[in-house]
Design brief:
With about 90 residues, the protein is an all-alpha fold. The chain has one domain: Metal-sensitive repressor, helix protomer (Methane Monooxygenase Hydroxylase, Chain G, domain 1, Up-down Bundle). About 80% of the residues lie in helices and about 0% in strands. The protein is built from three helices and no strands. Helix 1 runs antiparallel to helix 2 and helix 2 packs antiparallel against helix 3. The longest helix is centred in the middle third of the chain and has 31 residues. The protein is elongated, with a radius of gyration of 17 Å. About 0% of the residues are buried.
């Protein structure tokens, strides 16, 4: 896998989002272990799913900006765009 860099503040913000999602999933696991009401668990699942969707959108935007737009050569940009499109096809399934 190629190495590329992103601004530190952006990387930290993405990591914070991942930690929030991780916390939500841990809370959902606890709710299930505590046999909490199904509707409460489902509401937390909806929140976690939205948080994952938001994280995915941020990473897509970052990839477009830092990896595709900043590519050194047009062939490199096209390759990265094809890779992104392949991932997006799976993302929208």
């Amino acid at each position: 896998m190629e190495h590329h860099s992103h601004p530190d503040d952006e990387r930290k913000a993405l990591c914070n989002r991942v930690r929030r999602v991780t916390g939500q999933l841990t809370a959902i696991e606890t709710m299930i272990q505590e046999d909490r009401d199904c509707s409460e668990v489902l509401m937390q699942l909806v929140s976690a799913r939205k948080a994952l969707k938001s994280l995915s959108e941020k990473i897509i935007h970052s990839h477009l900006h830092h990896c595709i737009e900043a590519a050194q050569k047009p062939t490199e940009a096209r390759k990265k765009l094809r890779e992104l499109l392949a991932v997006l096809e799976r993302y929208v399934e």
